[in-house]
Amino acid sequence: MWQSVLDRMLRSFLRHGALTIRYPDGRIVQYGSGEGPCVAIRDDATLRRIALDPQLAVGEAYMDGTLTIDGDDLHGFLETAVRNTAAPDPARWYRLREAAGSVVSPLRQLNGLRRSRANVAHHYDLTPALYDLFLDADKQYSCAYFRDPGNTLEKAQSDKKHHIARKLCIQPGMRVLDIGCGWGGMALTLARDYGAKVVGITLSEEQLAIARTRAHRAGLAGQVEFRLQDYRNVSESFDRVVSVGMFEHVGRPNYGAYFRVVRDRLTEDGIALIHTIGHAAPSAPSNAWIRKHIFPGGHVPSMSEVTPAIERTGLRVADIECWRLHYAMTLRHWFDRFTARAAEAQAIHDARFVRMWKFYLAACEATFRCGRNDVWQFQLSRRTDAAPITRDYLYGPQPGA
């Protein structure tokens, strides 16, 4: 029965590219046209779970080893899947599932103070050594900026930080709030290279400890303060507010509160820079597998969800920049680095975790390379004249060049 159900689902789903399935009974069926990855489903229980909830079950079956891909061609498999989900004419059953998910999606994003802390701990309080396997030395865990596609990850991450600093128009002595400061790289750069006084806030105890240690070792402890604090509990005023890769964790029901905090924390002539993944299509529910295993409570916003929340606060949108494909390139660097050190990752966790992390990195890359995800940077201000009125100031020599 379930083989027949999945067969019908795939025949309507595969409109772009091709996919071959080896079913548990030995039957081999090709869907779509041309050549594509070959996937083996090992048992009937996996077959049933995929037919009932493909978005969640495919990733879990890969983690469990009950779904395998010839040559472990994760990228080919996931790019084929994403092309078909992102197409303007996805299968009817897929549209219905998305519609049903949209009804309950806001409830999954009610990220109050306690839930926000738990969501962050789920991902960012993993063993710190894990992130050392694939991140750059500065531990930048967000989209890099590839001024040249051939640049190293280290160069692209450095260029990202300086590009953001220029949009903030940082001057020595300015007070900066870094919302979601991670392991401290952005805050330390603004302090060391631009003379800013930075308060970085995070909900991750692991990130906090590392950021504080880094500030001490860099001799910047008197210039940078790191706190375990929710953005809603900050009370001071700042000349600049920066937030890189954190807005995806806010949750749509909290967008109004988030941008009110940005407005209220900014001085009258202040500037904010919000760097976030964005969904270049109408709002869609978060992926069930990503939500369960990687980023609980997360949501990738559509432009139509973000801009009304900004407008209601009275903040001005001084600039919006869209980075296309930069995150796909970043994620490929991370995937290659992680895969090269998979044995070390397995020693830290286990083989199932390694497969989960590979699936996560490859799936996210597919959404930026073949799907509807981009990265957006919102430059916001309270005053019309707070930021330069052209982009010419962004493209001179980098600091120290």
What's the quick description here?
The protein is of the alpha/beta class. The chain has 16 helices and eleven strands.
Rg to the nearest angstrom? 22 Å
Global shape? globular
CATH class of the largest domain: Alpha Beta
Strand content: 15-25%
CATH superfamily of the largest domain: Vaccinia Virus protein VP39
β-strand number = 11
> Are there runs of 5+ residues with pLDDT below 50, and where?
none
The H-and-E topology, N to C, reads as: HEEEHHEHHHHHEHEHEEHEHHEHHHE
CATH topology of the largest domain: Rossmann fold
Q: What structural category arises from helix and sheet content?
A: alpha/beta
Assign the CATH architecture of the largest domain.
Answer: 3-Layer(aba) Sandwich
Count of helical regions = 16
**Ends apart, CA distance between termini:** 65 Å
Largest sheet: 7 strands, mixed
Mean pLDDT: 91
Q: How would you describe what is shown here?
A:
The protein has 401 residues and is α/β, with parallel strands linked by helices. The protein has 2 domains: 2-90, Nonspecific Lipid-transfer Protein, Chain A; 113-394, Rossmann fold, CATH 3.40.50.150. 47% of the residues lie in helices and 18% in strands. It has 16 helices and 11 strands. The protein has helices at residues 2-13, 44-52, 54-64, 74-86, 92-108, 113-124, 128-132, 153-168, 185-194, 205-217, 255-265, 288-293, 303-313, 326-340, 342-348, 351-369; strands at 18-22, 28-32, 38-41, 67-69, 175-179, 197-202, 224-228, 238-244, 266-279, 316-323, 373-381. It has a 7-stranded mixed sheet with strand order 7-6-5-8-9-11-10, sandwiched between helices. Strand 1 (18-22) and strand 2 form a beta hairpin. Helix 3 packs across helix 16 (351-369) and helix 11 (255-265) crosses helix 13. The radius of gyration is 22 Å and the shape is globular. The N and C termini lie far apart (65 Å).
